[in-house]
Amino acid sequence: MTPPLRDNPVKTALAAGKRSFGAMVFEFFSPGLPQICRNAGADFVLYDMEHTGLGFETLKTQFALCRGLGIVPMVRVPRGEYHFIARALDVGAMGVMVPMVGSAEEAASIVACTRYPPAGRRGAAFGFAHDDYGSGNVRDKIAAQGFNIITSTPDELAAYIRSEHEKWGKLVKVSGAKVE
After folding, report:
1. Is the pLDDT of residue 10 over 90?
2. Does any domain span residue 4?
3. Is 51 a catalytic residue?
Protein backbone atom coordinates (compact mmCIF):
# COMPACT_ATOMS: atom_id res chain seq x y z
CA MET A 1 0.00 0.00 0.00
CA THR A 2 1.26 3.47 -0.87
CA PRO A 3 1.84 5.75 2.14
CA PRO A 4 -0.56 8.71 2.34
CA LEU A 5 2.35 11.16 2.14
CA ARG A 6 5.91 10.89 0.89
CA ASP A 7 8.51 9.92 3.48
CA ASN A 8 10.79 12.65 4.78
CA PRO A 9 14.26 11.09 5.19
CA VAL A 10 15.65 14.26 6.79
CA LYS A 11 13.07 14.13 9.57
CA THR A 12 13.71 10.40 10.00
CA ALA A 13 17.47 10.93 10.27
CA LEU A 14 17.15 13.80 12.75
CA ALA A 15 14.65 11.85 14.88
CA ALA A 16 17.19 9.02 15.05
CA GLY A 17 19.88 11.44 16.26
CA LYS A 18 21.72 11.40 12.94
CA ARG A 19 22.90 14.36 10.90
CA SER A 20 21.51 15.59 7.65
CA PHE A 21 23.29 17.91 5.25
CA GLY A 22 21.90 20.28 2.68
CA ALA A 23 22.24 23.48 0.73
CA MET A 24 20.57 26.83 1.34
CA VAL A 25 19.83 28.47 -2.00
CA PHE A 26 19.38 32.19 -2.57
CA GLU A 27 19.83 32.55 -6.35
CA PHE A 28 20.09 30.63 -9.64
CA PHE A 29 16.92 28.56 -9.56
CA SER A 30 17.77 26.54 -12.66
CA PRO A 31 16.07 23.21 -13.46
CA GLY A 32 19.27 21.30 -12.69
CA LEU A 33 19.74 22.77 -9.22
CA PRO A 34 18.16 19.95 -7.16
CA GLN A 35 20.10 17.30 -9.10
CA ILE A 36 23.38 19.20 -8.69
CA CYS A 37 22.76 19.47 -4.93
CA ARG A 38 21.90 15.76 -4.72
CA ASN A 39 25.02 14.81 -6.69
CA ALA A 40 27.05 16.90 -4.22
CA GLY A 41 25.64 14.81 -1.37
CA ALA A 42 22.89 17.08 -0.08
CA ASP A 43 19.94 15.49 1.71
CA PHE A 44 17.85 18.63 1.39
CA VAL A 45 17.64 21.95 -0.40
CA LEU A 46 16.48 24.94 1.63
CA TYR A 47 15.14 27.70 -0.63
CA ASP A 48 15.19 31.20 0.81
CA MET A 49 12.11 33.39 0.31
CA GLU A 50 13.02 35.87 3.04
CA HIS A 51 15.96 37.57 1.37
CA THR A 52 15.22 36.89 -2.30
CA GLY A 53 12.55 37.55 -4.87
CA LEU A 54 11.68 33.85 -4.96
CA GLY A 55 7.95 33.41 -5.49
CA PHE A 56 5.61 30.47 -5.02
CA GLU A 57 5.47 29.61 -8.75
CA THR A 58 9.25 29.16 -8.97
CA LEU A 59 9.27 27.40 -5.62
CA LYS A 60 6.64 24.92 -6.81
CA THR A 61 8.71 24.14 -9.91
CA GLN A 62 11.86 23.63 -7.83
CA PHE A 63 9.98 21.35 -5.43
CA ALA A 64 8.67 19.30 -8.36
CA LEU A 65 12.22 18.93 -9.63
CA CYS A 66 13.19 17.41 -6.25
CA ARG A 67 10.69 14.55 -6.64
CA GLY A 68 12.30 11.23 -7.38
CA LEU A 69 15.79 12.44 -6.46
CA GLY A 70 15.67 11.53 -2.78
CA ILE A 71 16.24 15.16 -1.85
CA VAL A 72 13.91 16.94 0.56
CA PRO A 73 12.63 20.38 -0.51
CA MET A 74 12.42 22.94 2.28
CA VAL A 75 11.80 26.67 2.41
CA ARG A 76 12.61 29.64 4.60
CA VAL A 77 9.45 31.73 4.44
CA PRO A 78 9.59 35.53 4.81
CA ARG A 79 7.58 35.57 8.05
CA GLY A 80 5.66 33.26 10.35
CA GLU A 81 2.28 34.13 8.88
CA TYR A 82 -0.33 31.59 7.84
CA HIS A 83 -0.44 32.53 4.16
CA PHE A 84 3.31 32.02 3.75
CA ILE A 85 3.51 28.77 5.70
CA ALA A 86 0.36 27.11 4.32
CA ARG A 87 1.12 28.01 0.70
CA ALA A 88 4.71 26.76 1.02
CA LEU A 89 3.44 23.44 2.33
CA ASP A 90 0.71 23.26 -0.32
CA VAL A 91 3.22 23.68 -3.17
CA GLY A 92 5.31 20.82 -1.78
CA ALA A 93 7.64 21.99 1.00
CA MET A 94 8.56 19.16 3.33
CA GLY A 95 10.17 21.53 5.81
CA VAL A 96 9.67 25.13 6.81
CA MET A 97 12.13 27.51 8.43
CA VAL A 98 10.55 30.58 9.98
CA PRO A 99 12.65 33.63 10.82
CA MET A 100 12.30 35.99 13.77
CA VAL A 101 10.37 33.75 16.15
CA GLY A 102 10.50 35.49 19.49
CA SER A 103 8.18 33.59 21.82
CA ALA A 104 6.62 30.25 22.59
CA GLU A 105 3.26 31.69 21.54
CA GLU A 106 4.61 32.58 18.10
CA ALA A 107 6.12 29.10 17.76
CA ALA A 108 2.79 27.51 18.73
CA SER A 109 0.99 29.64 16.14
CA ILE A 110 3.49 28.55 13.48
CA VAL A 111 2.98 24.88 14.33
CA ALA A 112 -0.81 25.38 14.15
CA CYS A 113 -0.40 26.72 10.59
CA THR A 114 1.10 23.36 9.58
CA ARG A 115 -1.54 21.07 11.08
CA TYR A 116 -5.04 20.30 9.90
CA PRO A 117 -7.94 20.68 12.36
CA PRO A 118 -8.41 19.77 15.10
CA ALA A 119 -4.66 19.86 15.79
CA GLY A 120 -4.20 23.14 13.92
CA ARG A 121 -5.74 25.58 11.48
CA ARG A 122 -4.32 24.60 8.09
CA GLY A 123 -6.86 24.52 5.29
CA ALA A 124 -7.40 21.08 3.81
CA ALA A 125 -6.83 20.45 0.11
CA PHE A 126 -5.72 17.12 -1.28
CA GLY A 127 -4.60 15.82 -4.64
CA PHE A 128 -2.13 18.68 -5.00
CA ALA A 129 1.66 19.05 -4.93
CA HIS A 130 2.06 18.40 -1.21
CA ASP A 131 0.65 14.88 -1.54
CA ASP A 132 2.14 14.23 -4.98
CA TYR A 133 -1.22 14.77 -6.69
CA GLY A 134 -2.28 11.42 -5.33
CA SER A 135 -5.62 10.04 -4.48
CA GLY A 136 -6.14 8.14 -1.30
CA ASN A 137 -7.86 8.29 2.00
CA VAL A 138 -8.07 11.87 3.27
CA ARG A 139 -8.22 10.72 6.89
CA ASP A 140 -4.92 8.87 6.42
CA LYS A 141 -3.36 11.98 4.92
CA ILE A 142 -4.55 14.13 7.80
CA ALA A 143 -3.23 11.55 10.29
CA ALA A 144 0.18 11.69 8.56
CA GLN A 145 0.34 15.48 8.71
CA GLY A 146 3.42 15.57 10.93
CA PHE A 147 5.65 14.99 7.89
CA ASN A 148 6.97 18.55 7.84
CA ILE A 149 9.82 19.96 9.86
CA ILE A 150 9.28 23.18 11.74
CA THR A 151 12.29 25.15 12.79
CA SER A 152 13.54 28.66 13.26
CA THR A 153 16.84 30.36 12.81
CA PRO A 154 18.90 28.93 15.66
CA ASP A 155 20.24 32.22 16.97
CA GLU A 156 16.85 33.95 17.17
CA LEU A 157 14.81 31.25 18.94
CA ALA A 158 17.77 29.94 20.94
CA ALA A 159 18.32 33.38 22.49
CA TYR A 160 14.69 33.51 23.57
CA ILE A 161 14.74 29.99 24.98
CA ARG A 162 17.92 30.72 26.95
CA SER A 163 16.26 33.76 28.51
CA GLU A 164 13.15 31.74 29.36
CA HIS A 165 15.32 28.95 30.74
CA GLU A 166 17.08 31.40 33.01
CA LYS A 167 13.76 32.83 34.22
CA TRP A 168 11.94 29.57 34.88
CA GLY A 169 14.68 26.98 34.98
CA LYS A 170 13.13 24.91 32.20
CA LEU A 171 12.97 24.73 28.43
CA VAL A 172 9.96 26.05 26.60
CA LYS A 173 8.27 23.16 24.82
CA VAL A 174 5.87 23.61 21.96
CA SER A 175 3.61 20.82 20.77
CA GLY A 176 4.85 19.46 17.46
CA ALA A 177 8.18 21.28 17.55
CA LYS A 178 11.37 20.10 19.15
CA VAL A 179 13.65 22.82 20.41
CA GLU A 180 17.03 22.13 22.00
Report:
1. no
2. no
3. yes
